[in-house]
Every structure is written in C-alpha cells, then in structure tokens.
Amino acid sequence: MNIIGISAYYHDSAAALIGNGEIVAAAQEERFTRKKHDPSFPSQAISYCLREAGIQLQDLDYIVFYEKPFTKFDRLLETYLAYAPKGFRSFITSMPVWLKEKLYLKSVIKKELAKLGNCQPSQLPPLLFTEHHQSHAASAFFPSPFERAAVLCLDAVGEWATTSLWLGEGNQLTPKWQIDFPHSLGMLYSAFTYYTGFKVNSGEYKLMGLAPYGEPKYADLILDHLLDLKEDGSFRLNMEYFNYTTGLTMTNQKFDTLFGSPPRKPESKLTQREMDIAASVQKVTEEVVLRLSKTVHQQLGEDYLCLAGGVALNCVANGRILREGPFKDIWIQPAAGDAGGAIGAALAIWHQYKDRPRSFKGRDTMQGCYLGPKFSQSEIRAYLDTVGAKYEQLEDNELLPKLAEILAQENVVGWFSGRMEFGPRALGSRSIIGDPRSPKMQSVMNLKIKYRESFRPFAPSVLAERVSDYFEIDRSSPYMLLVAPIKENLRQTMNSQQQQLFGIDKLNVPRSTIPAVTHVDYSARIQTVHQETNPRYYELIRHFEQKTGAAVLVNTSFNVRGEPIVCTPEDAYRCFMRTEIDYLVLENFLLAKSQQGQLEQDDAWKKEFVLD
C-alpha cells in the first residue's frame, strides 16, 4: 500500500510517501523551486517521491492532506466575529483568497494532482484529510522508538489547536486536551521575532541564537502583561498587546509602548536591547515548556515524550526538558514544522485509518532523515563537464584522508553526499563543513560563505560514541535538536577584561578548545553522527579525528542566506562558485576553488540573498 502525504499553502510545502508503513521518500518543495519556505502545491516534491518509489500517481492507494480547511475557515470566521469591528481590515485582505481557493481546497488539490498525473480528477486515488495537530502528533509518535509515549504538539496554530496533548499507544493516538487559538506559544515567539526585526516563520531560530548575548531583563514584563502562565503550564495571552487576530502585523502600539519603542526595522543594527528581549522571550518559552512537560508526566504517567510542531524546533528548550524534565527520554520529529505534517498525515492513514501495526527496530524509523534525492557519479560528471569545471575523481580511501588534511588546514568545504536531508537541518548530506578548532571559522563561515548575521552559531557534528567526551549529554542527538553545554575540561577561562564584555562583543572571545561550535553561553546544538545512517560522513569525521585528535566537525547547511539548502549538483556548484568556499565535494569528485574559472555573476545575486 502506497500513501502520499501533502503539506501545502501556508509555508514549507512538502510531500512524503509511505510504502507499507515505511517512509520511502520525503522532500520540501523549496528544494526544487529554490524559493525558500515555498508554500505552493508541492508538485515537484510529489514527483520526486513517486520516482523514488518507482510508481505512478494512479498507483497510490491514498493521498492525504495534513489539515482540514473547513475547520480552519471556521476558526477564521469566529475570530473575525469575536474581534469585530477591529478585524475588518484583516478580514477583507484574507477573504478573497479563501473564497476563491482555500475554501474549495479539495477541488484545488484534485486539479493540481490531475495535472500532475495527466488524468481526470475522477481517476485519482481517494483524497483524505487529517487534522493539523493530528498530523503533528502522528509525525512525532509513529516514527519514534517508543511503543508508548506522551505526545506534545506546540506550534503557532493549526485549525484551532495551538498546543495539544496525545497518548500514543502502539498504532493509535488518543487526544487528551488542547489549548486553542489565539492563545499560542508559537505566536508569542513569532511576535517577538517580528518585533526584533526578523521574518516571521523563518527568523525564529535567529531569535533563539541571539538570546545568549542578552540578559532576560524583560521576562517579568512578559509574564506580568502579555502571558498569564499557570503553575501547570497552561496559559492565556493578553490580546490587547497583539495584532495578529485583527490586523496585518504581529504586535500593536500598546506592545510598542510597553517595550519602549516601535519594532526594529529589518536589517538595521542589532542593539543590546534586542538581545535582552530575545533572552527574555526565550526564558519564558523554556519555562512554559518545562511546566507543560511536568504536567504531562503527572497526568499520563508515561516515561517517554514525543514532540512536534514549530516550537519543538527550539532546541534549547528541548535540551532543558531532557536534562531537567521527568521523562526517561524524549524524541523530536526532525521536520517538526509543517513540512513534517506530510509524513504525519500519511502515517496517520496507515496506522489509524487502516489499523496497521507498527514495527519496532530499537531505533526511530526516520532513517537519519536522509529521505531526499541522490545523484549518481555519471550524472555529476556530466554536469561538471558541461560547465567546464576542473575536478579530480577519487575513491573514498583516498578522498576522505585528503579531505581531513584539507579541513585541518582551516579550509571551508562544501560536502554533497548521498540522499538529501528532509527538514530544516543539514545533517551531513548537504553541509558546509570546517575545523571546529579554528577560532576564525565561525566569522569566516557567517560573513564570507553564508552572508548572514555574525552572531549566528554553528553546530558540531560529532561521532556518536564520542559525544560525552565533548558535551554534557549522555545520549545521541542525530537531528541537531538538542542543545547541551560543552564539557568543563574543554572550556577556556575568560580573563577579567573579557568578563566585562557584553552583547555582541562576546562573539570573538574563544570559549573552548572547539571555539567554532561553542556558543557564547558555552552551549552547542549537537548532531551525533552514526555509522548506521550516514557511514560516509562518519568515516570523514573519523579520518579528521585521526589527523587532528578532534572527533568533531563544524556543520552548517549548504546554502547562503535567503536560499534553500542545495538539492542538485548544479545548486551546489553555483553556491560553491559564488561564495568563498575553498573546496567542493560532489560524491567522489573533488573541486578546488583555486583551479576553477569565473562564474558569471552580478551584485544583484548577492543582494537577493543578503536582503533575506
């Protein structure tokens, strides 16, 4: 039985194919269209999934959409009525789109599918719909390694739910309770993302990365005025300060007055104030999540917790749940946002609708999240020859030791290997890598390669069995969704002058013997690399350890700011040629920048990505 799940029309459209309960393929549409967070119908992602499975659209047993549009429309109408006449401007802006397309989404989806399958809508497989938070919950529990678990979903909003609790048992999910819109932890975090000058639905992780540079001076202000937080973690927002139910912005003038100024203009200079605001909302978010997790444990008595929804990408909060929470272990869906809803929707049909059992293998069933397309050596060679690239082709036994030497000399390498990752993180298939021991690596990668803000931290890729030698964590973190402190013995003590620094001035002070992956608060967002799921990347790090003694590499996504992670050899080569990446590896082909000609480009290209 083959089932395709679809997520679309909000942001991060995606498709996933489940074959007899196994995840065969999954990809976001943005990787093919090259439009970051592309919300359009995922035609190319669906086509890829079908190619990977070797089937046609008409061979599918079911197609399932990740939420219910009529229920969502009901929420919009009730919200507008509840806030009338304030919501009129927002109402007249959104209604034409709903009345023309979204209200008739079933017909719109069938029309797109029929075009894709070159058939009549009547010839399509059955089209089903799951609820938004059901899709999140299914994406978190069904691929998890747990037979029973509490499942907590936290995001901005689905149809009505913004926070929901489920009990996962075998092949079933039972809803327990939910918090409804407009009271939303995701919306609160997005409001501060907007207020500090970053883009909603894409800049939240920037806010999280900025937080350690500040002090949580505004946390009490948030708790006193914006958020009524109960001891059990339930909460209500004071909607007098927010504009997302009635207007076209996240916050309003009363919010500005409370915090002393209007929102920061995008791309303007970051000040200590923004850093303190980021630290404050991050502290509040962590407190909400910790209280909720303790309540969930008390209510359900389960030893294990699964997480999904956009808030579950807050890896600092996840790390605290793991260290301070009551659960024996937690598992987070790697594509925790809406893209992962495509996997969840398909799995919900397989397990709940069709009542098919789950199989347990002692680990999760996400296959390391390597679910996207891969390219053969012949395909790569053909492309490189068409653009006149200079390269050498080496077997791994020669390439990997040579690459370890290149990395040890502080070169930056674009690494393109195997199947592309699904979800927002590069996990060693489409990565830019470097030497974590280099004190200049973070600034070089941020400013010369990624064209992004200098404060942004990078993640370490560490051999799974060595993780506890470097970080204060006693388990794997394969999906870069847990933050943990650097081991005390690796930290570098700051002198009295350095201790007086604050804000962004902290950036250039090395914090450990692996400074390129150590954030200013001595933390790191960890990816453990496993021989079972990515043997080639594992071997590269092992060779680097033999060369340098460090079983760690710097890992950041293979893209520049404003661009999706690269998908094809062409995407990778263009990024390599238009940045200051020193070497490019495309499977077994090694390219040195010094040997390449010039790629035609203009300043408009760089502006397009810098003005993200």
What does this molecule look like?
With 612 residues, the chain is an alpha/beta fold. 36% of the residues lie in helices and 17% in strands. The chain has a nine-stranded mixed sheet, sandwiched between helices. A five-stranded mixed sheet has the order 3-2-1-4-5. Strand 2 (14-19) and strand 3 (22-28) form a beta hairpin. Helix 6 crosses helix 13 (340-353), helix 7 runs antiparallel to helix 11 and helix 15 (396-408) packs across helix 19 (535-548). The relative contact order is 0.11.
Low-confidence stretches: 601-612
Major sheet: order of its strands? 13-21-20-14-15-19-16-18-17
Number of domains: 3
Second rung of CATH, namely the architecture of the largest domain: Alpha-Beta Complex
The tally of helices reads 21
Query: End-to-end distance, in Å?
Result: 42 Å
CATH topology grouping of the largest domain = DHBP synthase
Number of strands: 21
Integer average pLDDT: 92
The gross shape turns out to be globular
Largest sheet: 9 strands, mixed
Structural class: alpha/beta
